[in-house]
Specification:
The chain is mostly helical. Helix content is about 65%, strand content about 0%. The chain contains 10 helices and 2 strands; from the N terminus they run αββααααααααα. The protein has helices at about 25-40, 65-70, 75-90, 95-115, 125-145, 150-165, 170-180, 185-195, 205-210, 225-250, and strands at about 55, 60. It has a two-stranded antiparallel sheet. Strand 1 and strand 2 (about 60) form a beta hairpin. The chain is globular and about 55 Å long.
C-alpha cells in the first residue's frame, strides 16, 4: 500500500520563525529524552544519593531520580507524533508496520532484563508494541472511515488487546496515538486533549513545545542505515544500560 505526502503542514501554536525542528531533530530529541528516562530507571534507581530528597513541593518529595524520570516523560508523545508522521508520509505502510513489529520482538528480551534481569518478564511489554498497535489503529481509522461500525469494532478490538498486552503506556498510550492523529490539524486542541488524557503523566505536556516547532522537513536522517539506527537505538541503549547496572550494582 502506498500513500502520498500531505500537501501542507498543519498550523502550529508558534509563529513560523520558531518552527526550526526537522523530523530528524525530533527523533534525536526523543532518543535523548528516552535515554535520560531509562538511565533513571536502571542506574539512578539503584544509586542511593540520587534517591535523597532535595526538597518538597507540598507532599511531593523531589529527588534527582524523580527529576530525571519527569524529564524523560516527554519522549513518548514525540514518538507518537513521529509514528503519525511516518504513517502519513511513508511510501510502504506494510513495510512500516512490519518494522515496528520486528523491533518490538527484538526489543522484548532487553526490556525483560531491564525490569527483571531475566529472559522472561510477563508483566509488561516494550513500547514498540504500543506503537505497533497504534499504527494498526491508524490503519483502521483511515481504511474504514466510510464504515464507522466496522471501524469502531476494529478500534475496540485493538483497545482490548492493548489492555491485555499491557505494553509500555498500555491502553492509555494506544488511545493517545489516536487522539493525536484525529487532532493533527488542530495543534492547540491536540496538546490540550493529549495532556488531559495523560494527566497521570502530566509532565508529557512539555513535549508539545517541540512538536509545535516541527517544520515538516525530513532533516539529516537520510538512507536506510540512518533510519535503522534509530530503530536499533531502543534495544541497544537498554542492553548497554543493563550491562552498566550489572557492573555498578550487581557485581
Amino acid at each position: 500500500m502506498t500513500t502520498c505526502t500531505q500537501p501542507t503542514l498543519p498550523p502550529s501554536i508558534f509563529p513560523t520563525r520558531f518552527q526550526i525542528l526537522s523530523g530528524s531533530a525530533l527523533k534525536l530529541l526523543a532518543c535523548i529524552l528516552m535515554l535520560i528516562d531509562h538511565t533513571g530507571v536502571l542506574i539512578l534507581a539503584n544509586y542511593k544519593p540520587a534517591l535523597r530528597v532535595l526538597f518538597t513541593i507540598g507532599s511531593t518529595e523531589i529527588t534527582w531520580y524523580r527529576i530525571v524520570r519527569d524529564i524523560g516523560r516527554s519522549a513518548f508523545p514525540i514518538f507518537c507524533f513521529l509514528l503519525m508522521e511516518g504513517f502519513l508520509h511513508t511510501h510502504d505502510r506494510r513495510k512500516y508496520g512490519r518494522n515496528l513489529l520486528l523491533f518490538a520482538l527484538i526489543s522484548e528480551i532487553p526490556w525483560n532484563f531491564m525490569f527483571s534481569n531475566t529472559w522472561h518478564y510477563p508483566d509488561t511489554q516494550n513500547v514498540f508494541f504500543t506503537l505497533f498497535l497504534g499504527y494498526l489503529g491508524l490503519c483502521a481509522l483511515e481504511a474504514l472511515w466510510e464504515k464507522p461500525l466496522l471501524q469502531l469494532l476494529c478500534i475496540a478490538g485493538l483497545f482490548g488487546f492493548s489492555f491485555v498486552l499491557h505494553a509500555d503506556y498500555s491502553w492509555h498510550g494506544f488511545l493517545l496515538i489516536l487522539i493525536m492523529y484525529l487532532l493533527r490539524t488542530q495543534k492547540f486542541q491536540q496538546a490540550l486533549v493529549s495532556t488531559l488524557w495523560m494527566n497521570y503523566e502530566w509532565k508529557m505536556c512539555f513535549s508539545f513545545i517541540s512538536i509545535n516547532m516541527y517544520n515538516g522537513k525530513r532533516g539529516f536522517i537520510q538512507g536506510k542505515a540512518a533510519k535503522y539506527f534509530f530503530y536499533l537505538f531502543y534495544p541497544v541503549h537498554i542492553i548497554l544500560l543493563v550491562i552498566l547496572r550489572q557492573i555498578l550494582f550487581y557485581r
